[in-house]
Amino acid sequence: MSPILVGPLAVAGLSTVLAFIIAILDKFLNNYGQLKISINGGKKELVVKGGSPLLGTLAAEGIFVPSACGGRGTCGACKCKVVTDVGPHLPTEMPYMSPKDIEGNIRLACQVKVRKDLEIELPEELFSIKKFKARVEHIKDLTYDIKEVLLSLEGQTIEFQAGQYVQLVVPPYGDIPESVQRAYSMSSRPSDGAHVELLVRLVPGGIATTWVHKFLKEGDTIEVVGPFGEFGIHDTAASMICVAGGSGMAPFKSMLNHMKETGAFPQKEIWYFFGARTTKDMFYLDELSKLAETWPRFHFVAALSEPKPEENWKGDVGLITDVLDRYLQGKVDRKKGLEGYLCGSPGMINACINVMKKNGMTEDKIYFDKFS
Amino acid sequence: MNAPNVGIISLFIASILTSNILLANFLGTCSFISISKDFKSSMGLGIAVTMVIGICSAVCWVVLFYIIMPLGIEYLSFIIFIIVIAGVVQMLEMIIDRFSPSLYLALGIFLPLITVNCAVLGVILFMQIRYYNFIQAVVFGFGSGAGWWLSIMLLASIRRKLDNNNAIPAGLKGTGITLITIGFMAMAFIGFSGMIAIQ
Questions:
Q1: Which strands sit side by side in the sheet containing A338-344, from one edge to the other?
Q2: How many CB pairs under 8 A join A and B?
């Protein structure tokens, strides 16, 4: 045989043998057989095939633990309590664990492998989380960069609380080779379980927002997983101070419609601050102003930070944090106590928390959804 | 070429002390410097390196004497050794994962990282140029691994002491003082060199 062939053939042969041994080892070693997962003290029992991470194993059984990164251990959303001893926390879990989490056996479901019978605890509401097939009913431009997307669940219904979010499954498109999931708050009313409405602002370079704005068409069939999240109205008599910017409107649209429609939480006074730069960024203005006129306990404050003279803006002017500060010191009635509800960019939320704390609101009464 | 005439006990001690893979040959220093800041991780990595070097020396000795030399493809030995190391590490990982989850957790992310640790390849190349026989190769492999383990534990202990010392100038803190420490440790290890020489 030509000596020039011997080398490559030897290397190729050796690699093949190694790969073959690894494949065989994998088949025998990674076979854990049928295992049992008991959830919430035996309320639910699953029989699963072992060897894969808990997150994927549960998803295959129709239980969707929230995960924004899809199981790569980079978001820390898939926390759950594993009662069975599965060894100490992994270095990949540590960045997301507080000392209290570690003591309480909280683990990241995407990092814990199912290799024996497990006993875990999950919040009850996760059982109502499902994957829905949805048809895009309409896509409407609200501003130059925000679209309202209405999805019809085709006969299925989603049960959720105003303020919760769904994860949109973005299929591979263009240069994006993998399917990703991104979280969006629902702006539809909980009473209409047949539809899910989302407000999506175009983020330059964003995988999901670009897909919604440039690729998604009316009539397309897509998938959403949900509902997730703990953002929602708290049942107290305290007044709600809601602050939003841009597509942060979504959970409040849902909450307001829900309260108006059902008369829920009748004691609550509602202040809604919505900030934008110019009238170009403003939307739902007429609907909300009309709602404020006919609904005595609802107060709507729209503010522009950089209104142009020709826009003829009659509402408040200034950064939303300054406007909020002014109202908290003056017009807002604080007798029944205040609760903060925030939705928007992390920068806006942090600034608003500071203003609220400065005005005597406590951090445990400030609730928010941060979308970065 | 015949195997060098050196007893296995002398070889084992020599590979730990006089020819320490880290402090005499300066191989595998990247993980040595970065991991030694944590005592517990150093322990895990030390065990992993010892195990991988020992087992890889045995496997590579077989590959060297029964595949590479008969076929006359010594010029490909680097590539072949690297492939074999990667494969062996992968298999080790799967076996440990299955049979000793606690050890697997202790080693954690270090096991796959060792694939690119130059100490492993270094030991195997020494074995090749010195024509060790099989027993010698295995002893030299485990000895070098143990030497690496010993060095990183020593450095980790010293660094733990240094961390509590405020006398170190700000500009030297971290890697700076660590490199100086390694220099001193290497000099101290020269003190062993009169005992046995294998290189």
A1: A316-317, A298-304, A270-276, A239-245, A338-344, A366-370
A2: 55
